[in-house]
UniProtKB/TrEMBL annotation:
Residues 2-160 form the Aspartate/ornithine carbamoyltransferase carbamoyl-P binding domain. Pfam families: OTCace, OTCace_N. Belongs to the aspartate/ornithine carbamoyltransferase superfamily. SOTCase family. Homotrimer. Keywords: Amino-acid biosynthesis, Arginine biosynthesis, Transferase. GO terms for molecular function: amino acid binding; ornithine carbamoyltransferase activity. It comes from Chryseobacterium formosense. This is N-succinylornithine carbamoyltransferase. The gene is argF'. HAMAP family: SOTCase (MF_02235). It comes from the Bacteria.
Amino acid sequence: MKKFTSVSDVSNLQQIIKKALEIKENPLLETDKGKGKTIGLVFLNSSLRTRLSSQIAAQNLGLNILTLNAAQEAWNLEFADGAVMNGDTVEHIKDAIEVLNQYCDIIAVRCFAGMKSKEDDVNESILSQFEQHAKVPVISLESATRHPLQSLADCITITENLGHFDKLSVNRKPKVVLTWAPHIKPIAHAVGNSFAEWMQEMDVEFVIANPEGYDLDKNFTKDVKVIHNQDEALKDADFIYVKNWSSFDDYAAMPEVKENWMLTNEKLTNTNQGKVMHCLPVRRNVELSDEVMDGENSIIYQQAKNRIFSAQAVFSEILDELNS
Ligand SMILES: NCCC[C@H](NC(=O)CCC(=O)O)C(=O)O
Ligand SMILES: NC(=O)OP(=O)(O)O
């Protein structure tokens, strides 16, 4: 693997899921693989899981780790090409990346959507600068339009829970529903887009449920069925992925939604004992109820744990390339 910014960087999805599950069984299988090499984990936005799971994964592979919480700890970065830097910004992103090239064998970066300019976000205005200027493999820790390490962890988690589905001995594919949930502010599309992209590579029946006005970018959802009625979509669901996002068409707007889309235990009764997923962090009793979060259908903490093995499988494949 030469880089990891989307599902298209994975040559064989089932194989990398299998590898991640082997790593989960024995996380210290490859403790020397990263010896003498350095990974830079650069965060332009907040993180709990991505930051810590990436550190554990890198540590398990013997990598040296540099973590930079750039928004808090580094110089104020300039992103615009040709900017006259006589204002608040101190260092251009191009120069920062060139310096990271001197210190790191792998650069991993988190750069969320700004949610101000649709064009900038759709074109990955920050990640593209890393792809352009980095001389080492680039890994996305969530960018404007995708969160591939999360989606891989989601695929691992679904795979682990297929035993439950198989036991039901029904003659159909597992039904996975990505359902929109309420939120108090405009949220990016990266997790939803990415989950949609990866689910199209899995052997599942995949549908998306969201209110009118909240359809995701067709470039990610392609021919996936989008249902504007949550109850209808949830019927017989085996996996329910809860996620908020703002409008894509009317970029970052929050059109009014009359029905209550918060996931509750009552709504789960319509499902096939559906397992509930969420990438976290979650706004309890806004996106889903406490009873769902703390209930027996939730596989949300398992999903968070699998972030380690998702990252480790990817770092390991990148190291294979560097060591070859
Ligand atoms: N990395 C996982 C999700 C990050 C982000 N959540 C947030 O921004 C939550 C913010 C809040 O709840 O105030 C999102 O949903 O795209
Ligand atoms: N799910 C996820 O990416 O969590 P963090 O934003 O805390 O890293």
